Structures are given as structure tokens and as C-alpha cells.
Amino acid sequence: MSDGSVTTASAVDDTGTGTRGRSLSRFVPNGSVIVIGLYLLFLMLPIYWLVNMSLKTNSEILGSFTLWPQDLTLGNYRTILTDPSWYMGYVNSLIYVVMNTVISVAVALPAAYAFSRYSFLGDKHLFFWLLTNRMAPPAVFALPFFQLYSSVGLFDTHIAVALAHCLFNVPLAVWILEGFMRGVPREIDETAYIDGYGFGHFFVKIFMPLIASGIGVAAFFCFMFSWVELLLSRTLTTVDAKPIAAIMTRTQGASGIDWGVLAAAGVLTIVPGALVIWFVRNYIAKGFALGRV
Amino acid sequence: MDKTQNNRAWFLVLPVLILVAFSAVIPLMTVVNYSVQDTFGNNQFFWAGLDWFRDMLHSDRMWNALGRQAIFSAIILVIEVPLGILVALHMPRRGFWASFCLVVMALPLLIPFNVVGTIWQIFGRVDIGLLGHTLASLGIDYNYTSDPIDAWVTVIVMDVWHWTSLVALLAYAGLQSIPEAYYQAARIDQASRWAVFRYIELPKMQGVLLIAILLRFMDSFMIYTEPFVVTGGGPGNTTTFLSIDLVKMAIGQFDLGPAAAFSIMYFLVILLVSWVFYTVMTNLDRKDVTR
Where are its TM segments located (chain B) (predicted)? Predict the structure, then answer.
């Protein structure tokens, strides 16, 4: 099986550097730019509107309909960045997301290696059972999680949310990493063992650098799904570990919703994601195929 | 398959097992536990057998929610999969614009679910939203909080906005893996654009498209936060999907028994459909490898 994936991998490399772009373009109709342009416009408009609102004062938002801020203000952002009860939400979110990413990837690495290299009793069933956890609706787990973490005294801590998110991130990380590890020829393992490397030494020193892009992709996905999830993180926290996405709901005050601050908070939740995407942009396509291309 | 038979590999899987047992098996057993018991408060529980399951199977409420959910997921798949393929076929293959497209397209995927809801809630409002305001000034009577059809359209367009990129990125990855020789052969045969798509691109994308359909099915079937923020399940119950109904029942009304029975049946439906997809997918994987 390793042979098959190696040949595909090298085929991609050959064509990637060769005549691909030029000859492909003959097959791409002229409408491409229009299709992509319209699609990107569709994606960007709602986000533009959010950014636009975040730079307006509330009286301008409610008083008149303007396509761009007439009276540009950064006051909404200032409100958020100077108030600990606001910006601690970002800190909380980042803490549990990073914890979750580290835990998920760390436990998924050896397991993915086992699935990609060995056949053992019950391996296929085990793999599917792991995947079923990715399929479990968070709504099913919300209440039991609440009771479980309350009873072990972890309620409203970062680690509780990080562990809860492992429910869907660990299976995903195993799935992605297994796909990438399959592409590494087994001869490398065997040679290393003959050369006298122990398993741990080989794994950290030789194997992990080989699948570095896979680890990056897995970490990206763990980050992504932990960052966007709200149902579980909101159920498991009250004050100390409350994520920013849950804090946003409090803009609904007695005098109506504070739209400007709400929009600014929304914009700030998009920023970390955008930064992460920028760093992994060259691996995104392969990553979304979970290493199976 | 030339994998080595080695049962000691279990030790490598052990950390995952312990972690997932803690975060999945224990909570799932709690749910099973509730589903067969009744309570009158005070932490006193009585054996109820399969009564809750029988109740739920005869409850219109659950069947209606399931029906809405099935229609929603079907519409989502019918729109997002072809649209995603279309976008992927038209994406630039390399250079700056390819990176640019990838980054912009991945952006909606990294926005927290409730912020997605908030964005569309604002965007669709007639008084302050660009979409709502534009539609209103065109004379279209649009109000997603009171008109069921408008609410459905809003929720579906939102989901298309949110997730089509996932399908597109997967399909794009599949397209990138097609060797140039295939296209050359097609040119020599003077194959039409459609033939190239049907006999070269589609078969090569099959694997990743199955992943895309599987992910989109699972995630649309458990959608909660986005429609909840935008419509709150309303107007009436028209956008109350399974998860929204479940949370309402379990946390809002604290009907633990019925909610637990509901959960288990819900999970089983997802499991069944996903198992079919997964079997097809692994069979394809194996075919690829032996080829």
C-alpha cells in the first residue's frame, strides 16, 4: 500500500513543477474569473458588513443606512480591549483551544502510527468507533458533560473544555495523521530499526519530521473545530473560563442590543482564524483532503 | 494489505482509548442510564424500561423535527456539493491568486458558529442589514423572524455561505492530484469539456467528495448554534431542527428521560448513515491502493 501512495505523491510533484498551469488553462472556460469573483463576493459581503458596522457609532447604525462609516470610530474596539470582562474571553478561548490542540495531537500521533503500520486485534472496529465520536451531536453530550465535570470538580476550568473538545478532535486528528503516515514508505522504519534506533528515538527524531506537514494540518483542524465550537464550551463554563463567543451574548442590554460592540467583538473572533489560515495556506488544500490525495 | 500483525500496537492506541473513554463512554452511559429511568426530583430514579423510547417513537414532535432535519440536510447537500465542485473547477491552480482564493474561502470555516449566526442575523435585518435593507428597498417583503419561508431561505443561504468552501477545498485538492498526462491524453482524443469532467475529474475526485459528503451530512444533521442564533428555532417551530429540539427538551424543560431516549435514537440515525458512507469510502481506499 505504501508503494501506491508514493507513486501518486511523486506524480504530483512532477506535474506541479512542469507544464501544468499552461496546458490546464485551455480546459478552463473564460467564465472562471466571473464564477470565482461572484463566489468570493458572496463570501466577503456579510463579513464586510460586520466590519463596517464595527466602525460605526450606534446612532449611525440605527439612524441612517450607510454603505461605509461616515463617522469612523474605534470606540467599539476600545470598549472591548480595555475591559477585562471582555478581553479575558479571548484569553480563555485561546487557552482552552491551545490546550486541546496539544492534547489531541499528542495522543493521536502514536495511535495513528499504530493504525497505519500494524494490524491488530479489532483495529478496524476500533477505528470506526473512534470516528463515531466525531459524528456524535454535541447536543447529546451537553448535559452529561455538565454533570460529569461538575462531579469531578472541573466545572468552569479551561481543561474541562479542552477535554470535552477532545471528543471530536482526537478522532479527527487520528484520521488525518493516519492518512499522512500512510504516504511514508515503511522501509524508512525498518532501516531505522536495523540501524539500532529505539521506537521512541526513531519516532521523534526521524518519523515526526517526515510528517511535519501532516502534524501542522492536524493541529490546524483541532484549532479550528475547538475555536468555532460553542455549545459545549458554553455549557461547561460560567465565569472563569467563559469563551468570548459566549460573552458576546451579553451585549443585549436593557436599552436594546449594543450593535457596534457586538460587531467589533465578532470581527475580533475572526482575526485568530485568519492569522492561522495565512500560516497554513500552502497546506490547506491537501489538509482538507485529510492527507488522502 | 501488507501491514505487520502485531497486537502490541494496542499500547500505542491506549492513550487515545483512555481519553475517549473519559470524554465519550462515560457521558454516553449517563445518557443510556437516563433513557431507561424516570425521576420525580430529589435524585430518586425509577426503572422505566423502554417506555421513553416508545413514547418518543409515537411523538409527533420528534417526527416533525426529524422531518425538518432530513429536508434541511438534503437541501444542503443538493446545493453545496455541486456548487462546491463548480467553484473548485474554476479556481486558479497556482500562484498568488490560488493562495488568495484558498485563504478567503477558508475564512468562513474559522468563524465561531454563533458569530456566523450573528453575522447573518445582522445582514438579514431589514433596518440595519445590507441584505434585508436591499431586499426591502426592492419592494420584496422579507422578514426572517416572522415568515417561515424567509427563515428557511436565510438559514439555508447562511449554511451555503458557511460550508460550501469545505466542499470546494476538498474537490480542489482532488483536482490538484490529477497528473497532467491525463489531460494530454484527453486533448489528443479531442474530448469535450464534459467528457473530461465526467471521465477524468469526477472519478479522481470521488474519494475526497465522499469525505465532503460525509462531513457535510454529519455536520448539517447536528446543526445547532447558527439557526438558533438567527431564528431561535422559529417562527413557531419551523426551523427547530433535531439538536435545537433536544437542547430545549434536556436543558430548557429538564425532561431527562425523553431527552435521553431522543438522544440515543438521534445518534443511531447518524451512526447508520455514516457507517454506510464509511464502508463505501474504505472500499474505495482499498481499490486505490491495489490499483
Answer: 12-36, 70-89, 96-123, 151-175, 196-218, 259-281
Residue B212 lies in a domain: yes
CB of A13 within 8 Å of any CB in chain B? no
The CATH number given to whatever domain includes residue B285 is: 1.10.3720.10
> Cβ A120–B7 below 8 Å, yes or no?
yes
A121 and B7 in contact by Cβ < 8 A? yes
In a domain, B24, yes or no: no
Contacts A–B by Cβ distance under 8 A:
312
CA of A41: which chain B residue's CA is closest? B104
Interface check for A66 against chain B (CB to CB < 8 A): the answer is no
What domain range is B276 assigned to? 60-290
- B165 contacts on A by Cβ (under 8 Å): 43
**Taken in order A225, A230, A234, A235, is the CA torsion positive or negative?**
negative
Instruction: State how far the Cα of B161 lies from the Cα of A157, in Å rounded to an integer.
Output: 33
**B277: three-class secondary structure by DSSP:** helix
Three-state DSSP at A148 gives: helix
Q: Output the pLDDT for position B86.
A: 93
Q: Tell me the three cell numbers of residue B39.
A: 425521576
With an 8 Å Cβ cutoff, are B208 and A293 in contact?
A: yes
Is the residue at B55 inside a domain? Answer: no
> Do B291 and A140 make contact, defined as CB atoms within 8 angstroms?
no
Give the residue, B98 or A5, on which the prediction is more confident: B98
In a domain, B123, yes or no: yes
In chain A, what residues touch B177 (CB-CB under 8 Å)? 8, 12, 293
Q: Which CATH superfamily, name and number, covers A84-288? A: MetI-like (1.10.3720.10)
**A269 contacts chain B (CB < 8 A):** yes
- Taking 50 as the pLDDT cut, the residues of chain B under it are 1, 291
ipTM: 0.83
Find out whether B81 and B167 touch, Cβ atoms under 8 Å.
yes
What digits encode the pLDDT tens for the residues A197-229? 888 889 988 899 888 888 888 898 899 889 988
Distances B109 to A57, A138, B80, B168, B244 between C-alpha atoms, Å:
29, 18, 14, 12, 21
Determine how β-strand A118-119 pairs with β-strand A252-253: unpaired
**Distances, alpha carbon A35 to alpha carbons A130, A265, B83, B89, in Å:** 39, 32, 10, 10
Residues of A in Cβ contact (< 8 Å) with B133: 65
> B91 by DSSP, 3-state: which?
coil
The C-alpha atoms of residue A51 and residue B269 are separated, in whole angstroms, by: 40
* pLDDT for A100 beyond 90: yes
Q: Which of B4, B19, B31 to mutate to test the interface with A (most CBs of A within 10 A)?
A: B19
Pairing of strands B4-5, A118-119: parallel
* Residue A161 forms contact with B (CB below 8 Å): no
State the total domains in chain B: 1
Radius of gyration of chain B, Cα coordinates, nearest whole angstrom? 23
Cross-chain Cβ contact A148/B173 below 8 Å: no
Which residues are bridge partners to A256 per DSSP? Answer: A253
Residue A3 vs residues A282, B215, B288: alpha-carbon distances, Å: 25, 28, 11
> What amino acid is encoded at A123 in this protein?
D
